[in-house]
Design brief:
Helix content: over 70%
Number of helices: 15
Largest sheet: none
Shape: globular
Oligomer: single chain
Structural class: mainly alpha
Number of domains: 1
Order of helices and strands: HHHHHHHHHHHHHHH
Strand content: under 5%
Distance between the termini: 7 Å
């Protein structure tokens, strides 16, 4: 390995992109998913314990909010987030987080270790897009247990609300869940890529958890002297408040004009976040000089 590695990476990426079809990447991802499942099933007891732990934690998390709603009918006066509306919001949070935790978190957490150990050298030499490889080579199947939990909670909440979503809502909901996943992944891979420059960035990577905590609560509660600046910053600058709010709005009530405008903005913001994270990742790789340099 030498200092010419980034240039070779660019050449290989361009050639691979020119001859690779989406089906090829789909086949590679299915291979990653199958291998991860085989690895998990090799240690079944550990897998079962992880599933039980995830479901237990979510049950306690839900129990906390059930306790809160014993003392108040809604989250914030006039916000429209009653008990079961908020449970639908919580289910949407679980959908987004379970996908991120299953497909992206295990991989981005290991990026700094790949850089330290030299494993990134081998990733760069493979005839496949490096960001795709380091983002999806491992699937944490146990995290998908929360996905099933979320589906049950969403169905129960909508039944209690008495609201039957129309076909447009049912079609747009998974689209905006995907947008939420895209925005969280963009922030995650951007922070992880900085480890190429910093060597070790665990503190900066932890920043992802602090920021995404804002997405776990309805946007309407961020008001007043201190809440409004947070609302503006985390809606229009770093749009984490759109991650869960937009799909949750779609499922529990008809959208007003402002909410529809934010729904359109969420699509633009997702595309911008993915493009920016791709650019940052590429620039970081250009600075990589391999573990032996």
């Amino acid at each position: 390995m030498n200092s010419e590695l980034p240039t070779r990476y660019e050449i290989r990426t361009e050639r691979a992109s020119a001859r690779s079809a989406p089906s090829r990447y789909g086949a590679v991802f299915l291979m990653f998913a199958r291998n991860s499942l085989v690895r998990d099933m090799t240690f079944r007891a550990n897998f079962i314990i992880e599933v039980i732990s995830a479901l237990s934690w979510m049950s306690m998390y839900l129990g906390f909010y059930i306790l809160i709603f014993e003392y108040t009918p809604s989250i914030g006066a006039g916000t429209g987030w009653g008990k079961y509306q908020f449970f639908a919001f919580l289910a949407t949070t679980l959908f987004v987080n379970s996908i991120v935790e299953a497909f992206f978190m295990p991989n981005t957490e290991e990026l700094s270790e790949l850089i330290r150990s030299g494993g990134l050298d081998f990733a760069l030499l493979k005839p496949i897009d490096t960001q795709f490889l380091v983002s999806l080579q491992r699937v944490d199947w146990s995290s998908l247990a929360n996905f099933l939990f979320a589906a049950c909670l969403l169905g129960y909440s909508l039944l209690k609300i008495g609201h039957v979503p129309g076909w447009p809502q049912l079609l747009l909901y998974p689209l905006y869940v995907g947008c939420g996943v895209g925005m969280l992944y963009s922030l995650m891979i951007t922070l992880a890529a900085t480890s190429i420059w910093l060597g070790r960035n665990q503190t900066l990577y932890d920043f992802w958890f602090y920021i995404t905590n804002f997405s776990r609560y309805p946007r309407e509660i961020y008001s007043g002297t201190y809440g409004t600046p947070l609302n503006i910053a985390f809606t229009y600058i770093l749009p984490v408040l759109l991650v869960v709010n937009v799909p949750a709005w779609l499922m529990v009530r008809p959208l007003n004009a402002e909410e529809w405008s934010l729904a359109v903005y969420a699509l633009v913001a997702t595309a911008a976040c993915l493009a920016l994270s791709r650019w940052v990742f590429g620039r970081a790789l250009l600075s990589y000089r391999s573990a032996s340099s």
